[in-house]
Amino acid sequence: MAEISRRAVLFGVGGLLAAGSVAIPVIRGLSSLPDGPELPQPQPLSEPYELVATPSGYSGQFPGPLLRVREGDRVQLAFRNGLDSPTSLHIHGLPLSPAVDAPLAHLKPGETDHRDFTIPPGTAGTYWYHPHAHGDVERQLLMGLAGPIIVDDGRIDADDRLLMITKDLQVNGVARPVITPRSGRVRLRLINATAADTLLLGVLSGSSRQTFHLIATDGGLIENPVALTEILLTPGERAEILVDATSAGRLELRALPYSVYGPGGAQSDDRLLASLNVPAGLAPIPLPGSMRKIDTPAGSRTRRLVLNGHGDSMFTINGRTFDHNRVDMQVASGTTEVWELVNEHTMDHPFHLHSYSFQVVDAPFRAWRDTVNVPPGSTVRIVVPFHGPPGRTVYHCHIASHEDLGMMGILEVT
């Protein structure tokens, strides 16, 4: 079995095209279209926190309202299903108990539930919420049911902008928005909230790639800024990058060509996602120093999870499709395990675990994650400490159609 490449380990390499007719098509010929409006920011969700799933987005907004909180804040959230079909609310990425995340609970039309939780320490970063109604996740995401969450840190000096990438590669609900920087360094909080698009992202000046600095992944801040010229985000993943804005001119955030089928496979098109029109005279801002200390736990047991599929109609983990009534794996609370994620299929599969953050073994720097891509023919090893509250939760491919068609399992932490 081929080992995963360094770039894929770093960035959770994924793909722009899902298999078969259930995938989102990449629309050609959009790179030369004119710029859109100034980047809008999602409307904040104010207390008392209430969300309603509607056919036009959460609480009628697309993307949904922004939940902005700090570590230690108590969140009491009321959620109602305003659709004509079952739905649920997954708070993606925050290490909340299975009882709070409730990925196996579906609300019927008109039903409500209430979430009461405290933002855990060490989680300053960028997260999101979306449906988790098995068998209908892709359709509901494409309806526009997705919204952002920011856990503020107050430690990074930069012009802070949220970019939530959704259906048709819109950013915060518009195509090709413009950002006018207000300081000499811009913090881009990137959320891949698409149903199936993996994005190889670069910041370009003309045809030249510019260096930027990664400061956070799925699980929040990393230890020190990492200089990069590209980063890949699979569906569900987040990254925060710092872009230098001291030289006047135009910068472009672009989705660069990438193949989900490995080297030599058909590639996606180059796409303009957003532009930065940098004015003259912005003063330099130094990069942050050490941001966070991250320890890597040692695993006491190793498990093997094999990802596979049959055409474009069935996707499996360890040869089985999802069964709502079957527990696929039991783990003792307080233990730490190493999971070997083996992709025997022909395309990328981004693997997502609820409630319990993990680290990628042998990655070049330490970072907490909740989603990692497993390219075809590769094995990715992750280490998972099960130190949170016990309960039943799920793990699955975060290409929504693959999840809907069976690539999901139930984990019980006892």
Tell me about this structure.
The protein has 414 residues and is mainly beta. The protein has helices spanning 6-11, 98-101, 137-142, 400-404; strands spanning 2-3, 49-54, 57-58, 67-70, 74-81, 90-92, 112-118, 125-130, 147-152, 159-165, 178-179, 185-192, 199-205, 208-209, 212-217, 220-228, 231-233, 238-244, 249-256, 271-278, 301-310, 314-317, 329-331, 336-343, 349-353, 359-360, 371-374, 378-385, 391-397, 408-413. Strands 1, 21, 22, 24, 26 and 28 form a six-stranded mixed β-sheet that branches. A hairpin with a 2-residue loop joins strand 15 and strand 16 (220-228). Residues 1-30 have low confidence and may be disordered. InterPro entries: Cu-oxidase-like_N, Cu-oxidase_C, Cu-oxidase_fam, Cu_oxidase_Cu_BS, Cupredoxin. Pfam families: Cu-oxidase_2, Cu-oxidase_3.
Provide a quick synopsis of the model.
The protein has helices at 6-11, 98-101, 137-142, 400-404; strands spanning 2-3, 49-54, 57-58, 67-70, 74-81, 90-92, 112-118, 125-130, 147-152, 159-165, 178-179, 185-192, 199-205, 208-209, 212-217, 220-228, 231-233, 238-244, 249-256, 271-278, 301-310, 314-317, 329-331, 336-343, 349-353, 359-360, 371-374, 378-385, 391-397, 408-413.
Question: Layout of SSEs?
Answer:
Elements: E1 2-3, H1 6-11, E2 49-54, E3 57-58, E4 67-70, E5 74-81, E6 90-92, H2 98-101, E7 112-118, E8 125-130, H3 137-142, E9 147-152, E10 159-165, E11 178-179, E12 185-192, E13 199-205, E14 208-209, E15 212-217, E16 220-228, E17 231-233, E18 238-244, E19 249-256, E20 271-278, E21 301-310, E22 314-317, E23 329-331, E24 336-343, E25 349-353, E26 359-360, E27 371-374, E28 378-385, E29 391-397, H4 400-404, E30 408-413
